[in-house]
Structures are given as structure tokens and as C-alpha cells.
Amino acid sequence: MTVESTPRVVEAAGSSSLASRGLGGVVTMAGSGLSNQVGAAVGSLAFPVLGPVGVVAVRQYVAAVVLLAVGRPRPLSFTWGQWWPVLLLAGVFGTMNLSLYSAIDRIGLGLAVTLEFLGPLTVALAATRNRVDAGCAVIAAAGVVTLMRPRPSADYVGMGLALLAAACWASYILLNRAVGRRLPGAQGAATAAGVSALMFLPVGLVVVARHPPTLAAVGCAVAAGVLSSAVPYLADLFTLRRVPAQTFGLFMSVNPVLAALVGLIGLGQGLAWTEWAGIGAVVAANGLSMTARRGG
């Protein structure tokens, strides 16, 4: 091997390593998204026994255990300037999950997740002001109008709950940024998860007292917590070390499609072609917006 060829070999090896890491990141993102939606579907199987509130309570407990183990926060050392965004994040975290699961109970997994996805999409579109983002906003709005158009079977309470989840998700993103600036690592998110779990502790006790749970229902709720909280969180930590944040955001746009497919295959929640078109519009708006940013 000549000296001149050595840099080419090193460059080729480096490119192969980057490609391998990128592929691993894509596989992890796909697994994370599928796990999240399957978890929501499994959790919905416990609704007849525990209701959405009971399932969310169990999910909050599981999320707290995982995040506290990973983040290892030291809340006694927090100042008030660090505590107040953590407390807001805890309230938003619980409200987001409760409103989403209540929406799933009323309008199905695919539509609920699609409407919830408007939260991060709105945050992304609001970050820049150009013609592409304006067009993306119009596309997303058309999708929402299609999904929420007046019809006899429309459940506007369920849609409203999904939009509340969207607003909470947008707030969750902004509060996470504020918490991240004030606290190192995952301490803020872990503490927020712990506080949220404490808030749901009396809720869980009331649910158990009024509706004695079955082993199957508790198993479904715990599975929802693991699949929709623990697995995605750990997978996202792995992924963000291997792929750019914009690629991560672009891939997140497939979640409404995954939710619709899981709802169709796992729960028998079929959608009309107009609803698929609405989901496609929301997904396309996010994908176009993220692609334009990456190209710029």
C-alpha cells in the first residue's frame, strides 16, 4: 500500500463508519416510533377497566422510574429559578398524556396522534418565516380542516382533547429547552417526571378503589409505560448521538402514519380515504419544512 493511498483508505473507513452509524440511527428511530404507537395501542386495551386516567397514571409511574434512574437528579440543590420550569413541565407532561389517551379513547389512535403532532409542527414552523414554511402551514391547515370537517360522526370533544395534547406538546418542547438551560443533563426532565408521577399517585389510588384492576389491565398499562415512555426515551438518547437533529425531526413526521397503521392492524380502527389524505397532508408539511431547513 502506498503512502498516497493511505488517506483514501482512512477516508473510506470513516465514511463506512458514518454510514453504519446513520443506518443504526434510522433503525433506532423506526423502532422507537413503532414502540411508541404500539404502546399506546396496548394501553388502550386497558381503557374498559382502568379508563384513560388509570392507564396514564401507570404510564407516569413507569416514566418516572426510568427517567429518575437515568437522570439521577439532585432536587434539594435546585433554586427557585430552576424549580418553576420543572414544575410547569411536570404539569404539562401529565396533561399531555392524559389528553392524548382520552382522545385515543374517543377518536382512535391515528387521528389523535396526527392532531397531537400539530404541536411540534407549529413550533418548527414558528421558528422561521419564509415562503416554504408558509406553504407548509397552508398544507398542514388543509389537512386539519379535512380531519375536522363537520360530519354526523365527528367527535369534536375527542378532537379538542387531541388539540389540547398538541398545545401541551408544543409547551413541553419550549419548557424542555428552558429546563435544559437551567439544569445539566436529564436532571430537569427526570425531576419533572417524578413530580408528575406524585401528582398522579392519588389519581391512581382513586381509580383502583373505584375500579378494581385486573392483572391483564395492569399488564397492558405497564406495557404502555415501557413501550411509550421508557423505550422511546432511551432510543432517542441513542439516536441523537448518531443523526443530526433535523434528520431526527424529519423522521418524527412518520409517527402519525405509524399510529394510523397500528390502529388499523392492531385495533381495527379503519380510516376513510379523506382521513388518510388529512394525515398525509400533516406529514408532508413537516417533511417539506424539515427538508427545506436541511437544504438551507
Automatic annotation (TrEMBL):
SUPFAM superfamilies: Multidrug resistance efflux transporter EmrE. It comes from the Bacteria. Pfam families: EamA (PF00892). Residues 158-285 form the EamA domain. Keywords: Membrane, Transmembrane, Transmembrane helix. The chain crosses the membrane at residues 45-71, 83-101, 107-127, 156-175, 187-209, 215-235, 247-267. Belongs to the EamA transporter family. This is DMT family transporter. The lineage of its organism: Bacteria, Bacillati, Actinomycetota, Actinomycetes, Kitasatosporales.
